């Protein structure tokens, strides 16, 4: 692929949108744009951010979306939410660029659980669906929205009264048999010829708000791959997709859902060498792709991460060595990342240290002897502020006393080692 493709991810701040960003941000074949209807976390992640997109339920959604596609010369739109996948698939012919998503029919079957279960009831084990509470012979049962995502609006009911209580709150809930066993996601990839190139099962070991936040690959893959082949041969799927299964009380795997989109925790297999979003874009561009999976043990655990926008203009960075750039005889990798970011942005870097001995040997040992524009070696009597001449500078030091002295005399921003994260782009 010689031409760089402009990809609009929408909504870019979802867990799906964030994983697409992580997967594509370093590709030379992709220019990423993030779009959102609300200013969410995507605004802090995507460099090319487009806010204020209409909600998909807006009657002018498609026309307004097409104006953005035309203005930014977008080649592909990558939907990053189940409702958006369904909306765009239903309107694919009206969209002014290519859609990375399922066909209209596939989107319909995947979006609604009742249709998924009806379509696959003679092909795969699916949950028993009760029409009403009077049919239930065994409790507990599980209630879930027909078109939900994650665990939103789901309930476990232990008796008839609880079932009727939840149905009074939401009449559209499906009443399903309760599946007590372990839950799995199977990440898959199908090429444009309909061939399933990969199916990787992983355990959903810990789940928060319906998102798998701790996951690792399954060793015994045979049954999962068999399920993937059946799904793939009966649905028109393309690119990255996944399905979820859970064991029933007899240990059998039962189909929960299918989605022809990226899953947030596909990052697990991405770090084994399988970049699902990039493979999908290559396939959409007519390129034949192959799967290469590394063979090592890996486990993914996810948690909230901080991202910052800092409105600070500076040309020079003054940084301390001991207990700052070097901590417990190791390089401070976060601070090193920031300093190399400064190199990329053509900012001057000055080292100020009171180390009396072996400075050259230390810098050479940690391979940072050529990182600095200048090194200031001072004694205990000299103030570090005396060396700072530029008002557009920042100062980084682990010592509060040193930071206070520089801030008081120079009135420039000062940072401790715990605050470096806000400086990282």
Explain the layout of strands and helices.
Layout: E1 5-10, H1 15-24, E2 30-35, E3 49-50, H2 61-71, E4 76-79, H3 82-90, E5 98-99, H4 104-111, H5 113-120, E6 129-130, E7 141-144, E8 155-157, H6 160-169, E9 174-177, E10 183-190, E11 196-208, E12 211-217, H7 222-234, E13 239-247, E14 253-259, H8 267-270, H9 276-284, E15 300-301, E16 316-320, E17 326-327, E18 330-331, H10 333-344, E19 348-353, H11 359-365, E20 374-377, E21 393-396, H12 400-410, E22 414-415
Parallel strand pairs: 1-2, 1-4, 2-3, 4-5, 16-19, 16-21, 19-20, 21-22
Antiparallel strand pairs: 6-9, 7-8, 7-9, 10-11, 10-13, 11-12, 12-15, 13-14, 17-18
Helix pairs in contact: 3-4, 4-5
Kindly provide the radius of gyration, computed on alpha-carbon positions and rounded to a whole number of angstroms.
27 Å
Into which percent range does the helicity of residues fall?
25-40%
CATH fold call of the largest domain: D-amino Acid Aminotransferase, Chain A, domain 1
* Protein structure class: alpha/beta
Give the name of the CATH superfamily of the largest domain. Answer: ATP-grasp fold, B domain
The domain count comes to: 4
Can you tell me the overall shape?
elongated
* CATH top level label of the largest domain: Alpha Beta
Q: What value does the average pLDDT take?
A: 95
Please list the strands of the largest sheet in the order they lie side by side.
14-13-10-11-12-15
Q: Major sheet, described briefly?
A: 6 strands, antiparallel
Say how many strands there are: 22
Low-confidence stretches: none
Q: What portion of residues belong to β-strands?
A: 15-25%
Individual helix count: 12
Overall CATH architecture of the largest domain: 2-Layer Sandwich
Distance between the termini: 28 Å
